[in-house]
Amino acid sequence: MLPKEINDIFEEYSEDEYSLYVTKVDYSGSNFIINFTLDVQNINDKGAFMQMWSIEATKHMKNHISFDSAQMIKFKDDHPLLWEFTDIQCELYFSGDCKDTPKLFYDLYHTHEKLFDKHQNFNITFGEQTSNSKRFQYNNGLLAIGSKKLMKLYAECLKKNGLDFTIIAEHYAKHWNGQRFISEPNNLKILLLGDTFVIAENFSFEKLGENSR
To answer: Where are the beta strands (DSSP E) in 27-173?
Structure first.
């Protein structure tokens, strides 16, 4: 989905020769718009230049914006951040006696971090003052609610720590449109630009300008 002009730059230059950064976000209209700059350095006498681009996301669903410098921009139609929209949703319950709660926490956190990196917070906490830790005073309870793919990976962590699990209440992902619950679209894509991500149905690029330096 990247314009040929951007792909050509990525093929000609290495990642240490350019940087990308978001300069503006506009959600005032019906679509979600991101402006970003592609800054190419003068390395090996190739010349330096800066391109300004705009991306328009139609039927936007979710985003996280970072204005930090980045070295990549890409699209995916299969990514863990899409699971809350594209996967079956369910509840994960555990049963059994947890012998080593800190290890279980580490296994769950490490699994989450590998999938989502910095893009999504890990929301299972085992602190002494939290209801999540209290559940392990008993030998069964609800661990988490989310996509089935994620719950199955969490379930593997439970098994590694000597616990059994049950997955129930499976249903298709839906959202409230103001009048009723409707199914999420099944053709979503995710734009990844460093720590920025945008989930939408379609993306279109427009070049805003270029400056040589």
So the answer is: 32-40, 49-58, 62-64, 73-76, 89-95, 140-147, 164-171
Q: Nearest-CA neighbor of 132 among 159, 160, 166, 92?
A: 92
Cβ-based neighbour number of residue 24 at 10 Å: 12
Cα(104)–Cα(143) distance, rounded to whole angstroms?
A: 12
Predicted confidence at residue 129, as pLDDT, reads 47
In the chain (213 residues long), the average pLDDT of successive 10-residue segments reads 92 91 93 96 77 96 95 94 96 91 92 93 67 61 94 97 96 87 91 96 96 79
d(CA 101, CA 28): 46
Reduce the DSSP state of residue 173 to 3 states and report it.
Answer: coil
pTM: 0.88
d(CA 62, CA 189): 11
User: What domains can be seen in the chain, in order of their start residue?
Assistant: 4-77+188-212 (no CATH), 83-174 (3.30.1390)
Query: Computed from CA positions of residues 122, 128, 134, 137, in that sequence, does the dihedral angle turn out positive or negative?
Result: positive
Structure token pair of residue 44:
């090996």
The CA distances from residue 69 to 77, 114, 144, 210, in Å, are 24, 22, 34, 18
The pLDDT of residue 1 is 81
Residue with tokens 């609800």: 142
